[in-house]
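Hey team,

Filing this mostly as a record. A colleague (T.K.) asked me to run one chain through the structure pipeline before their review meeting, and I want the input and output archived in the tracker in case anyone asks later how it was produced. No errors, nothing strange. Just documentation.

Input sequence:
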Amino acid sequence: MADTTDRAGDTADPTLDGAAPDAVLRRAPFSDNPNVGARGQRTRQAILDAALKVFGDIGYQRCSIDRIAKAAGCSRVSFYQYFSGKEDVFRRLAAQVDRQLAVSNERLDPITPDAAGWASVRAWADRYADIYERYEPVFNTFPAAAESDVALSEDAARLADRYGVGFRARVARTDLRDRTLDPILEMLRESMTRTLGDSSTLRHAVPEAFPLADILDAYADIVHRTLFGRVDDVNVHGRPGRSTPKLLAFGPVMETVVAQSSNGDGEPGRDGPTRRALLDAGRQVLVARGYHGTRIDDIAEAAGVAHGAFYRYFKNKEQLAQVLAAEAMRTVSTTLLEIPTADADDPSGRATLRRWLKAYNRAQSNETAMIRVWVDAALQDEGLRTDSAAMLDWGRRRMSRFLAARGFGDPDIDAVVLVALVDAFGVRERPNATIDAVATIIERGFLGR
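Output structure:
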């Protein structure tokens, strides 16, 4: 297991872009005594640990210096000795994640077509899961932090390229062409983070149904099959006799919203252009700012209506987000139902799958982003987690039926990874190279063709 904590005696953190680390010094105006000793290191790490918890509890937007300082048991003055603000704290936490991921990549053994190559991928996945568990709030809140910190976003892109190069260097004897390998590995990496987050949400609802070890086995199988093709005694695992996980039901509020038509809310006379304007504005603002970063005033202003008009149509922000998430689910479900069947004998199967992916990405990027807003909101709101897990399970059941036709492995567990892949792919518009990469992952990694 990778070491995922900074020891009190450490004197430096690496920067996000991989530059040489800087010594930890007190900030001005405390620089008359700039060197930080063991006690100062402990205080600094306590602030980082407290910030990690606060980011996990309430998200990035609602986090404040006062909340972090209180959780760390220190004053604002002590906080400012080490950090310039919450952005600075988040960058340092992200740097810790970077360090752990870099060490994990350095430990990656060659990825070969045999059992040793599968074990290399599986060990990497295990280390990634350890890092994710320790720093889950950083992974979950990174999009919100990067939105307001351009440098953080740029550094993340550079790091992704560096990780991709390191991973690719370990791949041996694959028949995939060099120019197709990079986008494939990038989508597999993106889907790993989604897989861990989604499976955590599902286990929260049904702890016994989605064991992490089984999820990581499935992920390693899919990566190895994508790179080398299906080899039954190497990259096909799972328990064919596993009982199907029980159906996760929506909570009463979301169930009502899902059952209603996309143009009405069950209250006669309440639908109309103003309500539609609020929904359209709400979608735009929620996707841009996230659930907890959005205020009702923001939505009303974007819709061009008075603050009070909002409450003629919705009880609160949660109800509006529920309606939008339900609408997005209905739209995405129509497209998911059109996913081509797993017919290995169909010579036009790849072209059909690619057309479906292109249509899905073009039409569903906004819808998928809205569903993700709802899922992410549940990470800091226990009351929303039931609906969030049910929403993920709804997609998983559809993908499980799609995979069942292939006749090997465990479609219920593999479907968790497939939902994560489609989710990561659909969150924004993708170039043709990425569409081809996802088609390859589905064909080789999931369908074993």
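Quick notes for T.K.: The beta strands are 12-13, 22-23. The chain has 19 helices and two strands.
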